[in-house]
Specification:
CATH topology of one domain: Porin
Number of strands: 11
CATH class of one domain: Mainly Beta
Strand content: 35-45%
Radius of gyration: 57 Å
Helix content: under 10%
């Protein structure tokens, strides 16, 4: 219907069209919900510094059931195991001064000799320039040659039974000297000799006789020597 140039739709037709539109099914939208042009991107959950859920990589750590959220404490460092020193192999050569051997050579040092004669006071003689030469006769035998300090002339020779660096001066051997004590002779009672690296030690006792104003008087002798072999 037209009225004054305007076209009017009858009220009945308008109501019928609205009712038909309400009852018709709605078609699905081609644009997914939340993904339109104005949709905002989902922000990841913010993890504060120091949060136990945040591992070193920055992502939240997954904690399994029964697992503690606290990191396992590192064990305290214990003492380092002792390193065993390698044992010396059989046949390995040691330094010469470390081997227990009765070394041959000339030893210079000091002797002190004490003579106790019957009816006379003890007489002691010390020589700080004493010398003894060690000669090896065999693996089991050595010889001690006692030398005068000034001339190095021998005044007594003693045989020694040797085992490693230890030696035994057998009894019954003849003894003479030292020359500084006069005409002294005798017989060995007992004696020992030992070589420690470069050091020689000699200790012995002897029954002796000494000439005193033309008379031979008996007595005892104690003799000690310690000296060193030069390098």
């Amino acid at each position: 219907m037209k009225l004054g140039g305007l076209q009017f739709v009858p009220v009945g037709f308008l109501a019928w069209g609205l009712a038909l539109s309400a009852c018709s099914p709605t078609l699905p939208s081609e644009t997914p919900l939340g993904r339109g042009p104005a949709a905002e991107q989902e922000r990841p959950e913010r993890i504060e510094v120091g949060d136990k859920r945040a591992p070193e990589g920055g992502a939240a750590a997954k904690i399994e059931p029964g697992q503690s959220s606290h990191p396992a404490a590192r064990p305290a460092p214990g003492p380092k195991p002792a390193t065993a020193k390698p044992a010396t192999r059989a046949g390995q050569t040691k330094r010469a001064d470390e081997r227990p051997i009765f070394f041959a050579g000339k030893y210079g040092g000091l002797y002190d000799a004490i003579i106790a004669l019957q009816g006379h006071p003890e007489k002691k003689r010390i020589d700080p320039k004493a010398k003894i030469r060690v000669e090896r006769v065999s693996d089991a035998r050595a010889r001690l040659v006692l030398l005068e300090s000034e001339t190095e002339d021998p005044y007594c020779t003693l045989d020694v039974d040797v085992s490693a660096n230890q030696g035994t001066i057998s009894a019954g051997q003849s003894w003479s000297g030292p020359p500084a004590l006069g005409d002294v002779t005798g017989t060995i009672i007992s004696g020992t000799a030992r070589v420690d690296a470069r050091r020689l030690l000699v200790d012995l006792t002897a029954d002796i006789e000494a000439n005193v104003v033309g008379t031979r008087i008996g007595g005892k002798l104690k003799f000690h020597f310690h000296g060193w072999r030069p390098l």
